[in-house]
Specification:
Blueprint: E1 6-10, H1 18-26, H2 29-33, E2 36-41, H3 43-53, E3 70-74, H4 90-108, E4 114-117, H5 122-128, H6 135-142, E5 150-154, E6 159-162, H7 169-175, H8 178-194, E7 201-205, H9 220-234, E8 238-243, H10 248-253, E9 259-262, H11 265-276, E10 281-285, E11 290-294, H12 311-325, H13 335-352
Parallel strand pairs: 1-2, 1-4, 2-3, 4-11, 6-9, 7-8, 7-9
Antiparallel strand pairs: 5-6, 5-10, 10-11
Helix pairs in contact: 1-3, 1-12, 4-5, 4-13, 8-9
The structure holds 1,4-dihydronicotinamide adenine dinucleotide (NAI) and the ligand NCC(=O)COP(=O)(O)O.
The site of 1,4-dihydronicotinamide adenine dinucleotide (NAI) has 20 residues, from helix 5 and strand 11.
EC number: 1.1.1.262
InterPro entries: PdxA_fam (IPR005255)
GO molecular function: 4-hydroxythreonine-4-phosphate dehydrogenase activity; metal ion binding; NAD binding
Length: 353
């Protein structure tokens, strides 16, 4: 039976639109009611978000004895003078990394059902941590797992999955291997099943124009992708392809596929953002808890102006609440156990900062 989940919300890059859209999203009654919220960040930067949004949320500081529906876990860690709205910096990356790591550990330790985050700026994250590549690598390090999850871009109409993600375009072709494709098909199937699709239909995008056009425009589709799709189909996955990538989303939107597996980041993201930029969610699957964020980024060009659209953040928060509320795990639901769990959150948060 569904229960109201506890979501650890890691505030993202403070120089971007993240705090503003988080304030707006939690001011939306239906979104707020969908979960209990533990907001992880620096209270002074949250106040900046309230100012930018022109709205205020009455959220008490976290107190283990009084936690009911929402609390702010104030890590009070930002070097405020070094945060400039609209600019990447070490300070912004460091704050975002610490917020994210704390939220991940809360969930990994079973003290939150899911993690949401507002947009990170990967340039700032790299400045804050030279080893930072992307969220997947950081999650692996933070929760000490070898498991590499994957990003899924979610709209009501269709999902997008990726064989490669945050890699230079020049490297994509060499990373398209049968093993990666089969693994991505399996992860897409398992993640979508966990999200409520009993037997998802997956269309696999081709890499080259017109799926290589008989070998005229590259051989990967014929020699690598087609055999991998056949092998996956033999294992009973409902999969077809390679399908020319300029029309695979047209077919998906007509109802032929529940998801499209693309070969590289922008191949799917362009389609998804054209279909629903204001409600697109990036969902990270493959871990014991759901992780969700809006599909858009930090939008430095409009940060601080009070004009950011909160639609995708609302969609991300609601999706995480729905999936974790009906999910495979679930933290303590009775108040006494939850109180104990939330007390531990504080100790854990102190330990990781
Ligand atoms: N959820 C996350 O953590 C994500 C983080 N990123 C990161 O964000 C940074 C900037 O990425 P960009 O490619 O420039 O994409 P972006 O999404 O930040 O901006 C692209 C364009 O969309 C507009 N835009 C974005 N969100 C909007 C909103 N809510 N309302 C109105 N307009 C909006 C921006 O003003 C800009 O013109 C990068 O470091 C990237 O890695 C990108 C996507 C998702
Ligand atoms: N992994 C979260 C994230 O960065 C989402 O944006 P994208 O770069 O994967 O499009």
């Amino acid at each position: 039976m569904a229960h109201r989940p506890l979501i650890a919300l890691a505030l993202g890059d403070p120089a971007g639109i993240g705090n503003e859209v988080a304030v707006r999203a939690l001011s939306d009654a239906e979104t707020f009611e969908a979960a209990d919220w533990l907001i992880v960040g620096d209270r002074r930067l949250w106040a900046l978000g309230e100012e930018q949004a022109g709205a205020a949320c009455a959220i008490a500081d976290f107190d283990p004895g009084r936690f009911e529906r929402v609390a702010f876990l104030d890590l009070a860690h930002a070097e405020l003078g070094a945060v400039t709205v609209g600019q990447s910096s070490v300070a912004c990356g460091t704050v975002a990394l610490q917020n994210f790591r704390t939220a991940l550990r809360l969930a990994a330790d079973g003290m939150a059902d899911a993690v949401c985050f507002t947009p990170f700026n990967k340039q700032s994250m790299r400045l804050g941590d030279p080893d930072y590549v992307d969220e997947i690598g950081f999650i692996q390090r933070s929760i000490e797992t070898e498991v590499a999850g994957s990003e899924f871009n979610v709209l009501d109409e269709v999902w997008n999955a990726r064989v490669t993600s945050h890699v230079p375009l020049a490297k994509v072709a060499e990373l398209i291997t049968p093993e990666r494709i089969e693994r991505s098909i399996r992860l897409t199937h398992e993640t979508m099943q966990a999200a409520g699709f009993p037997n998802p239909r997956i269309g696999v995008a081709a890499l080259n124009p017109h799926a290589g056009d008989g070998g005229n425009f590259g051989t990967e589709d014929k020699e690598i992708i087609a055999p991998a799709v056949r092998a996956a189909a033999q294992k009973q996955y409902r999969v077809s392809g390679p399908i020319p990538s300029d029309t695979v989303y047209v077919r998906a939107l007509k109802g032929e596929f529940d998801a499209v597996l693309t070969m590289y980041h922008d191949q799917g993201q362009i389609a998804i953002k054209l279909i629903g930029f204001d409600r697109g969610v990036t969902l990270i699957g493959g871990y014991p808890f759901w992780i969700a964020t809006p599909a858009h980024g930090t939008a430095y060009d409009i940060a601080g102006k009070g004009i950011a659209d909160p639609g995708a953040t609302i969609a991300a928060f609601r999706l995480a609440a729905r999936l974790s509320g009906q999910s495979r795990r679930g933290v303590a639901v009775d108040p006494a156990t939850r109180l104990r769990a939330v007390r531990d959150i504080v100790f854990d948060a102190e330990a990781v900062v």
